[in-house]
Structure formats: structure tokens, C-alpha cells
Amino acid sequence: LEPSLHTLITFTPELALRMAEDADRRYRAWRRADSPAEEALPPLLGIPLMVKDVLCLKGVPCTCGSRILQDFIPPYTATAVQRLLDAGVVVLGKTNTDEFAMGSSTENSAFGATRNPWNPAHVPGGSSGGSASAVAARMTPAALGSDTGGSIRQPAAYCGVTGIKPTYGRVSRYGLVAYGSSLDTVGVFARSAAETALFFSLMAGHDPLDSTSAREAVSPITLPDEPALKGLRIGVPQEYFIPGMSAEVEQAVRAAIAQLEHLGATVQMVRLPHTEYALPVYYLIAPAEASANLARYDGVRFGLRAPAERLWEMFDRTRGSGFGAEVKRRIMLGTYALSAGYYDAYYAQAQKVRTLIRQDFLDAFQQVDVIACPVAPTPAFRLGEHTDDPLAMYLEDIFTLPANLAGVPGLAFPAGFSAAGLPIGIQLMSAPFREEILFQTAHAYQ
Ligand code: GLN
């Protein structure tokens, strides 16, 4: 499938084979032991995993979908990846992504676009499109992603798989190449809520290597045997059903909510009144933080260096030839918003509105346990459909950005299909650190 889908930037067959042989040796030793039950095997021993190419794995290139990091080999491993390695996974490769995770279609990768396995004329979503496509195509049971404004949930919806964007701070960002540091989260795609929950719970938890890592304890996630949701209060925000969204998406999401009600949940309307500001606020804060984070790619410290006579010329040429168009657009937006005289009007103002958006969610979670809504306004669009229109591309994120601005967790999972046979997803959000209730609800539905 790989030649037609292009899910990977780096395929690591030798590494995978070595890890698989290790797993096999461990398993055989365990079976030979006198009292095999005494020494438990690691929970994911021998299970394949793909890793989005914005997460570091020692000794394997980490390109972030960019020419500027084409030859960068990280000397360390991201905490999220390390915890899964400790749990026994076998890494198959590093998955394709929009350059520095900026995009909603995986078309912004310097190494070519990924395709949607349900229809290769369509995008898999993005920026974690390689991971979502690979899980949907059953090339791997699970794959890691990152979500700054929807990059796990939207591709999960477009590809018909399950994906979790954890609470901000829940999974360590150590070893995740920074995009918008106050929004970035590390999460995972798998085939079901139950499998996604397993990977998530092994990655989550405090990490002294990430100063924004949360200290909240992580308990193992228990999933109900019975698909019953008695007592669960679901809120449906009217602001997430907007004119211009696809009727098929609205129908599928409303039908899934009716099914959750049938399983015993109560459904009520909730209000998230500042939703309309999420898009402009996000597209100020994310580029502002990105412009600062991307200043480090100067040709001196990492990856690409374009030769030149003078230092500034070297910076110019390296950044000019190393970054793609979307990344340059974000750096310009971000540096503009942060410049002297504009900072208060743009960045500082956006931060204030962000607080109002977060407060909307905290208020809503006084009344309900879970918010249910669409993931994206349309099913997967065609390759090239939005490439000349950045604003149309940004609109795909309208229902996913608020969770990142508020720091709350979001889970996307399949709710149906369009008439054209493309998957449609539904999104559940909860109060911070209540991922378990998202998994329980989706598991009951599945
Ligand atoms: N599409 C959004 C952006 O381009 C979100 C991407 C992400 O979550 N990494 O910024």
C-alpha cells in the first residue's frame, strides 16, 4: 500500500526487525521460565507502531516534513516514544506530516502528499495525515501524532479511525519539535477507543523533562463491559452547527448523538459563546509562537546549511531555501503580530480572548460531562482543493481549535460515511484530565 498512500517519510525496516527479534527473545524466555505468570511481559510487546515525524527517535532522521531538517538525526528520544518503547513496541517508521505540523491536509510536506486510503483522490487530513492514513489502511495498529489545532482529530475523522488529543500537559512534549508551545499536545491513533486508551495511558503522566508537564496522576483506564451510558450528561453546543457545513456531517453527528442517548445518556444544549473567535485567536497565537520557535533553524545548529560568504547571507539562504511557503506565511504572520506596537493589539488581545474561550468550556463542564460535536465541517476534501486558498484550509480547523486554546482533551472517532463513501467523525470533549470519560463513551458507542 505504501507506494500509493505515501504514509511514511522514513521507513525503518532494520530497526523494526531488531526490535521484533528482541521482543521474540523476551517472549520465549518468559515462556521457558519456571513461573511465567510471576514476571509480567511488557503490555505492548511486539506491537507495531508508527511515529509522526515531529517526534524524536534517537538515531533516526526527524525531518518534520521540512527540507530544513532533512538531514537532522536527533541524539535523543521523545518521552512519549520512550514510554512506548519501554512497553515493548516495534517502530516501523516515521510518518508524513505537513511541514512543522502546519496544515490540515498533509499536502504541505516537503516530501509529497499522503493519500486517503478510502479514496486516494482525497486528502487524509492533517497535519498527522501519514499516521491516520497508515492506521486506516491497517499498515499498523497504532501511530503517534501531534495536535496543536486539530492535527490528530481531523485526520482521524477523515480516515475513519480513533484519535485522542490529550489535555495540555498530560503527555510530555519532551522530544516533540515545537510548533505552538502553549497549544502542542502528543496523542495517538488506533482502530478503536479501547486500543487508543491503552496506548494513551502508557504515554501519559508527569515528566520532569517537560516544564509544562502536568503532575496529575494517571490511573489505568477502565472501560465498561456493558455499552451503557446511564447518568452521563452530554452537551451539544449550537455554535458547532454552522451554516455552510456539510449536511451529511451534521446528520451523521446528530445520529451518533441520538445513539449515545439511546445508550442511556442525557442530552442537552450547551453554549460556548466565544466559539466564533477561536479561528482568529488561534491564527494569531499559533503563528506567533511558531515564529519564535522556528528562529532556531538558522543553518548553524540543525540540519540544512546553505553555503554563503557572509553570516546573514547564510541565514537568509538557509531559511529561504529550507522552509516551504506555508511555514514562511506563518513566520510572517507571527513576527508581524509580535512586532513592537502591534503586540498589545494582536498577541496580547488574542490571549485575553483565549481566556474567555477556556472559561466557556469550564462553565459548560459545570453542567455536562462531555461535549459532543462535529470534528470538521466537511468529509475529506480532494487533493489540491484548498492549496491555493489558505483561508479555506484554515476553516477546516474551526471545530478543533477551541480544545487546544482551552487545553481540554478531545477524542475523534468514526460516526458514519458520506454518500461518496468517505468517513465522517464525531468529536467528544471533556474537562481537563477526564480523558477516561471520553474513552468510556466512545467505547460504549463502538
Ligand atoms: N491545521 C492547523 C494548523 O495548521 C492545526 C495543525 C496542528 O494541529 N498541528 O495550524
Automatic annotation (TrEMBL):
One of its GO terms (cellular component) is glutamyl-tRNA(Gln) amidotransferase complex. Its EC number is 6.3.5.7. Residues 1-438 form the Amidase domain. One of its GO terms (molecular function) is glutaminyl-tRNA synthase (glutamine-hydrolyzing) activity. Keywords: ATP-binding, Ligase, Nucleotide-binding, Protein biosynthesis. One of its GO terms (biological process) is translation. It catalyses: L-glutamyl-tRNA(Gln) + L-glutamine + ATP + H2O = L-glutaminyl-tRNA(Gln) + L-glutamate + ADP + phosphate + H(+). The keyword Ligase applies. It comes from the Bacteria. The active site is at K52 (charge relay system), S127 (charge relay system), S151 (acyl-ester intermediate). PANTHER family: GLUTAMYL-TRNA(GLN) AMIDOTRANSFERASE SUBUNIT A, TRANSAMIDASE. Belongs to the amidase family. GatA subfamily. Heterotrimer of A, B and C subunits. Allows the formation of correctly charged Gln-tRNA(Gln) through the transamidation of misacylated Glu-tRNA(Gln) in organisms which lack glutaminyl-tRNA synthetase. The reaction takes place in the presence of glutamine and ATP through an activated gamma-phospho-Glu-tRNA(Gln). HAMAP family: GatA. This is Glutamyl-tRNA(Gln) amidotransferase subunit A. It comes from Anaerolinea thermophila (strain DSM 14523 / JCM 11388 / NBRC 100420 / UNI-1). The gene is gatA.
